[in-house]
Amino acid sequence: MTEAAGKSDRVPAPARIGRREPSKLTFEWQDGVENAATAAEIRRGCPCAHCVDEHTGRAILDPASVPDHLTQTEVSLVGNYAIGIVFSDGHRTGIFTWANLRRISDASDL
Ligand SMILES: [Zn+2]
Prior knowledge:
By secondary structure, this protein is α+β, with helices and mostly antiparallel strands. The chain has helices at residues 2-8, 39-44, 98-107, and strands spanning 14-18, 24-29, 34-38, 72-78, 82-87, 95-97. The strands form two sheets. Strands 1-2-3 form a three-stranded antiparallel sheet. A three-stranded antiparallel sheet has the order 4-5-6.
């Protein structure tokens, strides 16, 4: 976790996170980039111990098991470095750092 924290320091916090659509988050980053990701894409990038093996770093979560129509039901700020998201499938243990969100949203097809 210390490694990830070091990396996330280099990604500025988003100036704005938009959640007008229930299945999508939009980001306005402080470097001027605006992008977005679906709740399903974010859920598939969940770094929690239920989704990624803590010791080997291998994915436990089968991305195909996450439905494309997934929505986020709750979004809350975690410190000043991440957000916690509750998804409509009940998953709520993921903490998404700015660096992780930026990686996911940059890779998104949206
Ligand atoms: Zn997870």
